[in-house]
Amino acid sequence: MTDISASSFVRQDLVAERAAPAKTTGFIGFLRTRLLNSPGNILLTILGLLLAWYIVIPAIKFLLVDAIWTGKDRTACLAEKAGHEVGACWPYIQAKLTQLIYGFYPEAHRWRVNLTYGLGAALLLPLLMPRLPAKALNSGLFFFAFPVVAFFLLHGGGIAGFGMSWTAGLFELFEQSIGGAGDLLVNLSKSSAIAPLLWVLGKLLVLVGLLIHWLIFPLTWLRDQLQASSAPVWGDFLLTAVIVSAVLFVLGGGMRTGHRALIGSLLTFAGIAAGIKLMGLDRGGFPIVDTRLWGGLLVTLVIAITGIVASMPIGIALALGRRSTIPLIRIFSIAFIEFWRGVPLITVLFFATYMLPLFVPGNFAVDGLLRALIGVAIFTGAYMAEVIRGGLAAVARGQAEAASALGLSWWKTTSLIVLPQALRYVIPGIVNSFISLFKDTSLVSIVALFDLLGSLRASFSDPNWSTPTTAFTGFAFAGMIYFVFCFGMSRYSLFVENRLNAHRRH
Amino acid sequence: MSIAPRKPPLQFALRLKRALGGKAGWNGLAAQIAFAAILAWIAYEIVANARTNLETQHIASGFGFLNYNAGFDVNQSLIAYNNSDTYWRVFFVGLLNTILVSVIGIVLATVIGFIVALCRLSPNLLLSRIGGIYVEIVRNLPVLFQILFWYLAVLAALPAPRQSISIFNTFFLNNRGLVVPQPVTEPGLYPFVAALAVGIILALGLRHYARRALFQRGQMIRIWPYVLGCLVGLPLVSMLVFGEPLKFELPQLKGFNFAGGARIIPEFVALTVALSTYTGAFIAEIVRAGVMSVHRGQMEAGSSLGLSRAATLRLIVVPQAMRVIVPPLTSQYLNLTKNSSLAVAIGYPDLVSVFAGTAVSQTGQAIEIIAMTMGVYLLLSLTTSALMSVYGWRINRSMAA
Q1: What's the count of helices (H) and strands (E) in chain B, helices before strands?
Q2: How many angstroms separate the CA atoms of A327 and A422, rounded?
């Protein structure tokens, strides 16, 4: 056996340890890999730091460090008084806060606004949480009951009749319009080349009007009787409730299966009765607060909520119309959607403000806020239609085919099979259009409504608070409100999207 | 026994049904008639009411007012205008101002959008976070809010002309707007423009020739020195021969205001800045989504074919990203143009502001004027969407091939 140590190639000592590889985890590693991994990147990091430094530091200085927190009027926010460079002037916001939130809504009645905010939040929050049950009831309350209640709470006033009177009034209006058109045609026929045709058409229309008049005579007679009675609203209400419930009972399947519909209808009417009684609508309701006194966040929220609630049915109808197989309806839907999507919102608001009052009979005075609401609803409805159409296209064709193979009608296929799936797909899209609607509400300040931005702008002109930093303070405050709402909604939309795509995650 | 082909059954009734009611048949026809009746009734109501209301308000309908004298001044106009011109001219003044602010806004928004998108795509964490915060803040605030912010807060806080913020002593920023050097045309302008045009045509021709050589004979020709010569050299020669094309008149502070130079009104500055930063944030997201939509394997496949990184980007990644980017990008351009109508809030004399605003309150011809204004925007968006469908059709065709 040879001596191992004699073989010169065997190493005697251990190899020195190599240095550990550069750390790629933890804070240091993170700095190294994401910020400082190459000369170019180091330069970019320095640039980014400089940028952040020059934006963040002045912003904090303005909003917090140099800000004035207490004071009675503008003198508190002047540099001479404060003795240092003045940042945000928060006393100005304190002084204008009620105006920014309620506008000129009378102080004694602000509880009505607060109650509406509270009701809305109480109905909306459970609707947004996918875990909570009773979505149908909840959305019914939010989309149908809440707008009506909110109207009577915010605007005030009562009702003189109920279902019967309204139906009778509507039919009377229609009858008058038809009769008027007939008379016009008969008059025109005196000076026209196609006189006999016009005359016949006119007489026909007059005849139709007369027919309608006699058809609705029982209704109008009943209405007159009810109006003459001691409690017109309640009599009308009872009659409407009985008739509607009976109709629903029969439609729901009569003695066999109509009980569900009957109970639902009776419960709904009981709810409506409770609402009427609570708000005293049969006795004139709350004192009326003119919409010209509304302002600030109240108007912003009213327009946003009304816009979204009203645009949903418009959007669904237009989307279904655009996919319809009936040519006239399809063409009309396409033209309607493309027209309103092709023009800027501000011209739509001008249209609603200046042109709409010309299109309704002269004795209807359309309220300024209502005009803007109509404009916003049509405009958003057209955008909503495209969002919903995307959802309808995403529903597999087999679903509708299977439904018709089961013998469901078009209405049942659409309302029970296709629409529920389509609407689920487009919740993120709907939330996105709600975000843009919320941002677009600021445009109503151009047509002389005082929403949050309009109130803010109006408050700038108050000489009591005109300081060099007033405008910046006001924009910072309003910007935070807008940002919180919009950012919250966009996060919610992401959350829903992730939930909908849960099965695709890997 | 021959089997003569039977004649097909008469399709007349079916065809009639199809023509009248579409796929839905007779039900469709009934629905169409009912629908048409409702539409006719609504149209009748609108026309009848409008006629009575106009009569009670003593407004004569029609477009005759367009030839009347407008009688008001406009503080920015690209064409000659004074207050004795007609409403027609007011219409064109407003239209040109709208186009001006839209075009400049689109260029700036594209630049901002691409820069922010590059920041967001950058591996540098800090930079991508800053880009993300910019996008989130700007997208979540109303555009009107931003316009008013720039106009009422930032520009109003600028110093008076005497204390203007000077940039290289050529540009001056103050609360009355931005003062810039005014270009004055010199006799050398026309030869310069002609030389530039010739240069561009020559460069395009060279490119065409080089591409043909590459595709047909596989021959690579280096053309960039010649292109550079055409684009820069020719105009330079013309400048040397005929003199300068333009001279810039520098603004000078005299008394309380500037003499010389051109003043850009603050409304224009505020509107352009707000629109381009706002739309830029949306464009940044579009570009980012477009670049991220190209699969990473595409880049790897390109380099495995031996293409350089730049060539892979130029030939493989960008064309695919552009397919995703272009349609939403166009709709953002359209949005910017439509948002430029918010000029009415700060009094920049665009179409909505001078025509649908001032002219309506002066003449009361709301129906005609608002219809014309809506028509302009409608024409613009319909044209754009038609072009986009052509683009989409071509993309689909090239994808299928």
Answers
A1: 14, 8
A2: 23
Residues of chain B contacting A52 with CB distance shorter than 8 Å:
126, 130
pLDDT digits (tens, 9 = 90+) for B352-363: 888 888 888 888
H-state helical runs in B140-223: 143-148, 189-217
Q: What are the sequence ranges of the domains in chain B?
A: 87-158+266-363
**Residue B31 to residue A34, Cβ atoms within 8 A:** no
Concatenating the DSSP letter of every residue in B318-338 gives HHHHHHHHHHHHHHHHHHHHH
CB A475 within 8 A of CB A456: yes
Residues of A in contact with B44 (CB under 8 A): 177, 181
What is the Cα B246 distance to its own chain's centre?
28
Q: What is the mean pLDDT of each run of 10 residues along chain A (506 residues)?
A: 61 86 77 76 86 87 83 78 79 88 88 91 88 85 88 84 82 82 78 75 84 85 80 82 87 80 87 85 81 89 91 94 89 93 92 86 79 93 94 91 92 90 88 92 89 90 84 92 93 87 69
CA B316 to chain centre: 28
**Is A443 in Cβ contact with B342 (below 8 Å)?**
yes
Contact B360 A350 (CB under 8 A): yes
ipTM comes to 0.84
With CA atoms as reference, report the closest residue to B125 among A22, A39, A32. Answer: A32
CA B26 to chain centre: 46
Tokens for B329, please give them: 């990008």
Contact between B298 and B317 under an 8 Å Cβ cutoff? The reply is yes
Of A347, A475, A482, the CB nearest to B374: A347
Token readout for A359 is 């299109």
- Domains of chain A plus CATH, in order, are 40-99+463-500 (no CATH), 163-283 (no CATH), 309-439 (1.10.3720.10)
CATH topology of domain B87-158+266-363: MetI-like fold (1.10.3720)
Task: Identify the residue among A31, A32, A350, A366 best suited for mutation to test binding to B, counting B beta carbons within 10 A and taking the highest.
Answer: A350
Determine which helix (DSSP H) or strand (DSSP E) holds A295, and give its type and residue range. none
Cα distance from B68 to chain A (closest Cα, Å)? Answer: 21
Rg (CA), chain B: 29
Q: Which residue of A has its CA nearest to B129?
A: A48
Cβ contacts of B270 on chain A, cutoff 8 Å:
none
Task: Please tell me the distance from the alpha carbon of residue B344 to that of residue A345, in angstroms, as a whole number.
Answer: 12
| Residue A432 with chain B: CB contacts under 8 Å | none
As given in the structure block, the two tokens for residue A470 are 């007033």
Count interface pairs A-B at CB distance under 8 A: 178
Spatial contact of A485 and A438, defined as CB atoms under 8 Å apart: yes
